[in-house]
Amino acid sequence: MPPERILVVIDGMGVGGSQRQIAHLLAGMDRSRWQPELAYFRERSFLVDALVQAGTPVHHLPKRARLDPRFLIAYAALLRRRDYALVHAFSLTAEFWTVLAARASGRHPVLIASERNQYLDKPAWYWRLKRLTLGHCAAVIANSSAGAVATAQRTGLPVSRFDTVVNGVDQVPPIAPDERDAVRRHLDVPAGRVLGLFAGRLVAQKNLDCLIAALAALAPEQRPWIALAGDGPLRGQLEQLAREAGVAADLSFLGERSDTVRLMQAADFLVLPSRFEGQSNALLEAMAAGCPVIASAVGGTPELVRDGRTGLLFAPGSVAALSACMARLCTDPTLRARLSRQAREHVAQAHAVPTLVAATTAVYERCLLRRAAGTLTRTADAGRHVAAGGPP
Predict the structure, then answer these.
(1) How many angstroms separate the CA atoms of 279 and 18, rounded?
(2) 231-251 pLDDT, tens digit each
(3) Under DSSP, is residue 279 helix (H, G, I), strand (E, B) or coil?
(4) CB–CB of 130/154 below 8 Å?
């Protein structure tokens, strides 16, 4: 039997969690069974370059406006020309336009949707549109049980319609002590200070106000030195907040970095105080790199981090609890070493990239078999719901 031609589609292919998982998935698929291709609308990154170099066909479909007829025509033409057996969309924007393009193309690929976060900040129209698009899909793949449950509740769909496939990560070999020291010197970490790291976007979801307040709550001699790797719209506000809290000297805003895994290898812990998460790639990568983690117990995080065993969890938004976690790791190198070892063992067993690929393609196989047998069902009756708020 010839390999099935499938398409994975996402609106942006910048460097983010979903994009890294797409790269893992496409690179790891069995080419004797699958012929995978990628389509994206904006933001090319080194992840796309690596896929192209590996021989994966990539299609850039420029979307120039919220409503772009030329984009829809081009997408429909791609579906018609390539005649995919299955299309897996990784965002609501990709799902919505895939549904329209599939109808316009006259082709009937199996459609798979995704849920990558809890998205507690989304308005009501988002969930109406999500339900509408899911009504055309044969399956929904979530990266955490919490994300599946949250989406089921907000769309009114049964949670049984969701498949949970956890994120995958490559194992990272330990860093040599002299290399670790060199990274810390390059960051200008003060001598004798414990190095904490945040890696991610500087946005409201990450609740970095809580981190700054927790740092300020510690006595100066107890404080770790925190490096923030990432950028975002709140950078100026956070820098001002750090000055007002008297901890500007205890924080370093690094901006966007392409070496976050190396920073994780050099850090004494990673902290993620988010208000909501699906399954954080930053946590997963830190655990694979042997960096102990402190995280708020939100969304899919407790599914990944076992408190006291593979990391430390604290109540979301609790400044006192986060301060206590940081103080605990700052003063207990034995605990840091134990959490590091156990976290590495856990992700190697439960979050290997081949596990991600096998679980995802198992969903594909099931849906294609059901279509061949004439028993394929969609996730909901799409005709009963009308979205408000406009297309993404």
Answers:
(1) 10
(2) 999 999 999 999 999 999 999
(3) coil
(4) yes
Instruction: Output helix, strand, coil percentages for the chain, rounded to the nearest 5.
Output: 50, 20, 35
Alpha helices in the chain (DSSP H): 17-28, 46-53, 69-82, 92-105, 124-134, 145-155, 177-186, 208-217, 235-245, 260-266, 281-288, 301-304, 319-331, 333-350, 353-373
pTM summary value: 0.86
Q: Are 75 and 101 in contact (CB under 8 A)?
A: yes
Query: Does the structure show a pLDDT above 80 at 171?
Result: yes
Say if residue 184's pLDDT is above 70: yes
Distance CA 44, CA 48 (A): 6
Length of the chain: 392
Other C-beta atoms closer than 10 Å to the C-beta of 250 total: 20
| Alpha carbons within 13 A on the beta-carbon side of 23 | 22
Residue 391: count other Cβ atoms within 10 Å of its Cβ: 14
List C-alpha distances in Å: 165 to 21, 162, 292, 362: 11, 10, 24, 10
Instruction: Please say whether the beta carbons of 127 and 154 come within 8 A.
Output: yes
For the chain, list the domains and their CATH numbers: 4-168+352-384 (3.40.50.2000), 177-350 (3.40.50.2000)
Alpha carbon distance 15, 18 (integer Å):
9
- The alpha carbon of residue 183 and the mean position of all alpha carbons in its chain are separated, in whole angstroms, by 26
Ordered DSSP codes for 305-324: --BTTTBEEE-TT-HHHHHH
Asked if pLDDT for residue 384 goes beyond 50, the answer is: no
Calpha distance 148→151 (Å, rounded): 5
Q: Classify the C-alpha dihedral 324-326-331-336 as positive or negative.
A: positive
**pLDDT over 60 at 154, yes or no:** yes
Q: Identify the burial level of 110 via C-beta atoms within 10 angstroms of its C-beta, where 0-12 means exposed, 13-18 middle and 19 or more buried.
A: buried
- pLDDT single digits (tens) 107-116: 999 999 999 8
- Are the C-beta atoms of residues 84 and 63 closer than 8 Å to each other? no
pLDDT tens digits, one per residue of 191-234: 999 999 999 989 999 999 999 999 999 999 999 999 999 999 99
